[in-house]
Design brief:
Layout: E1 3-8, H1 14-25, E2 29-30, H2 32-36, E3 37-39, E4 43-44, H3 48-56, E5 61-63, H4 72-78, E6 81-85, H5 89-105, H6 127-147, E7 155-159, H7 162-171
Parallel strand pairs: 1-5, 1-6, 2-5, 6-7
Antiparallel strand pairs: 3-4
């Protein structure tokens, strides 16, 4: 395990898991949203794809994402392991709601200095709405990729509950 993707829906705990694994394996951790969103109004950095490509060819890394569409195949082709946090909605929704509520109430700056606002909650791409509406779609996409012959060499660790993921993590 040297090039690791931590995949799952928003709220599954990808960043937390990726940071923990990175610390245990002494791998550089890269937060996908921080790589992508580098400016106000959720602007994508002009060199996002080039940045991710440069990381992907390095001998070791861990990234907390399935990958945005423009870099998804690149990451999956270079990864050797996928840690899939395949949690049900009943697990991810309370997590994503608490996180977004905290970010909104305390005006926490995230990714490129952006903040989640009350009006964002009414947008279809807000993390809470996105996690709810895209849960099955994201799960199917990850499932399809884990069965795709192009990615057959990948070692896939699929966890259906936070408890099973935590148990595995204690052994890393």
């Amino acid at each position: 395990m040297k090039r690791i993707l931590v995949a799952g829906i928003s709220g599954a705990g990808k960043t937390t898991m990726a940071q923990a694994v990175a610390a245990r394996l002494h791998l550089p951790f890269h937060e996908m949203d921080s790589l992508k969103f580098t400016g106000p109004d959720w602007a994508t950095g002009p060199d996002f794809v080039e940045q991710v490509a440069a990381i992907a060819v390095r001998p070791g890394w861990i990234i907390d994402s399935l990958g945005y569409p423009e870099v998804r195949d690149l990451l999956w082709e270079h990864a050797d392991t996928v840690i899939w946090l395949d949690y049900p909605r009943a697990v991810v929704m309370p997590r994503i709601l608490r996180r977004s509520l905290r970010r909104t109430l305390f005006r926490e700056r995230i990714f490129g200095g952006n903040v989640e606002t009350v009006s964002d909650w009414f947008r279809r791409d807000h993390p809470a709405w996105w996690a709810w509406s895209q849960h099955a779609t994201r799960r199917a996409e990850i499932e399809r990729r884990t069965r795709d012959p192009r990615f057959a060499p990948l070692h896939v660790l699929r966890f259906a509950s936070p408890r099973s993921a935590e148990e595995w993590l204690r052994q890393v």
